[in-house]
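Tutorial, part two.
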Amino acid sequence: MLSKVVLLFGLTEEAGAALASAFAAAGFGVLPVPPERCSMPLAAILEGRQPLVPGNAPPEPMAVFHGLSDSELDRALAVLRKSGAVSLKAVTTPANLRWTPPELWENLSAERKAIKHGKRRH
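Running the prediction step on this input gives:
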């Protein structure tokens, strides 16, 4: 399994290449994940497995940070904010490593909606 990496989902080829370049320049490993690999849980993507069935990318761009320390995460978030390319972001947890990217997107979207309406989701 990749130990420290930024997973990128749902970006256009041009935006993905620009963001991957910015992360690489800041010293981060980057894995742009094509839609066909989005049928697998995040853990399987990080392990480099190939999908058994094709998947679909999340409906909007998303970045997932895996294995970064707090200071690395702060730096990575600064790169992401500067790009303006992605609004949904997450850090991997034991629970969400079992989710597919669309499942993670659903949870992040629900959290964003709850925050927008002043409600706590959990």
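Residues 22 and 82 are 10 Å apart (CA to CA). In part three we will examine how such features are distributed along the chain.
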